[in-house]
Prior knowledge:
The strands form 6 sheets. Strands 1, 2, 3, 4, 7, 15 and 16 form a 7-stranded mixed sheet that branches. A 5-stranded antiparallel sheet has the order 9-8-20-19-18, sandwiched between helices. The protein has a domain at 224-561: Beta-lactamase (3-Layer(aba) Sandwich). It is elongated and about 90 Å long. It is an alpha+beta fold. The protein has helices at 2-33, 35-46, 90-98, 105-112, 128-136, 159-162, 177-181, 183-186, 196-201, 207-210, 224-241, 284-287, 297-307, 342-347, 351-361, 363-372, 399-405, 415-426, 461-478, 543-561, and strands at 59-62, 68-82, 120-126, 142-151, 165-168, 171-174, 216-220, 245-251, 258-264, 315-318, 321-324, 327-330, 338-341, 430-431, 437-442, 447-449, 456-457, 492-501, 508-521, 528-535.
Amino acid sequence: MKSNYSGRIRFVSICILIFAFLLIGRLYVLQIVDNDFYLNKADRQYSSSSIKIFDRGTIFFQNKDGSLVSAATLEAGFIIAINPEILKNPEDVYKTLNEIIPIDHDAFLVKASKLGDPYEEIATHVDSILGQKVSDLKIPGLEAYKERWRFYPGGDSASHIIGILGFKGNEYAGRYGLERQYESELVRKDGGYVNFFAEIFSDIKSVASDVGGSEADIVTSIEPTVQAYLQNILASTTRKWQSDITGGIIMNPGTGEIYAMEVYPTFDLNNPQVEKRVSIFSNPLVENVYEMGSIIKPLTIAAGIDAGVITATSTYYDRGFVMINNKKVSNFDGKERGIVSMQDVLSQSLNVGAAHVQRLLGNKRFTNYMYAFGINTKTGIDLPNESKDLTDNLNSTIDIDHATASFGQGIALTPIATIRALAAVANGGVLVNPHIVKTINYKIGISKDTAIQRSFPVIKRETSEELSRMLTYSVDKVLAGGMLRMPNYSIAAKTGTAQVAKERGGGYYEDRILHSFVGYFPSYNPKFIILLYTVNPKGARFGSETLTTPFMGIVNFLINYYEVPPDR
């Protein structure tokens, strides 16, 4: 009898504990997880039950010390509206209102005359202080409704990364950049008012399922100071050379983590409606493809060394040109150089030398190496609308198509695919996955680091080290006559110049070029790889003229900002 009694006590106690845990869990969800939701409910009761208070997750940048900086957040204020059916003396109301908020006189009177319409907006995104002043007027028919809207503290900084919101039909959601890529995490669900205490006990079985909610904030690897510096460099370069656009990426070549990514011209995220060209919202760094020119030569030389068909000291006779399929492939100046080494092919950027290495490899093996570097496949970067490289020439049966590809013509790559391929030359020979988002912080209180695909070998480490030595020699001895050599830091780099293909095929423009520049440092254990390009610069023939100074400016900035220790 006593044991039965004790069993019942234990059963009741267990039930009470289970109920208590469920209740505590539900209270946690309501008071912590859904705190913003109920604050919004309170705001709607304060203003109007018919007005929804906008809500959305935050996108963060991350300082070098790990602290977070808001890149896309919410701003609070008021909507000012009138009810023409009950508003009296519109002229007097206008004069009173205009002393607080400048508004158009004629537009106000037109809206005030719509007697069959109970709601007409007069102003939106009104500062909280001014909105409160309007509310304090207590004029019948004049209302101030609490409002929140998307706000971008950086203005035009990283606009192509962050993206914008917009309507598609009746849906207001992310349309570009991270706003679109992470829409399902950033969007906030809304609904009607529910009594708080009723909510505690309603649908208590769903407490466990709430833990799997997808609402979150996004933490990126973008370092705001680095991003701002890169933007200034690109802007000054574009203005100096009157380029169509200039772009750049700063990435960790070992992890694929992107510290900065920018294109100039850019746009103001807080005022995107002023842009007359919708195309400016697209991100050329992941959506556009370009023939990158001679910065592709390190991939060709790496393939040749890795396959064992050449070494850095291998030589050939350079006549200044070579005939392939009855077509002439020339060096940039067409001059004969005689016997030169593979080091000269990189240092002097010799097209004939790159074509020579490609011929030794053979078309199939050359193509296989290019594919191993990730060319012809998307990088999978966490931004929308990534384009695929245009590499049909690598599948061609015509020799000259492969020869021109060896020095970066005839194949078109996205800048993000280009920096990924060259990062494999820098980092010991592995293909990394470029990415921007580091962590997703869910509202329920848990965080998840974004899954990064495992890197895999492309070339041998010895090949990577040899290429780094050759590219470092080019900086120390050749680029700008060796004047850019830094006594305490090794830097590996390659410049590029390419013709711009006509949009509808049929050859190249005679008056349009693309300059490119890639470099990384320290050369043998790189922390940074930098890709720059500028389209159609005026008054300069080669990429070394337009992009060397910007590149070295970025290098010096990064060394000082991150306090990079000397490596030599």
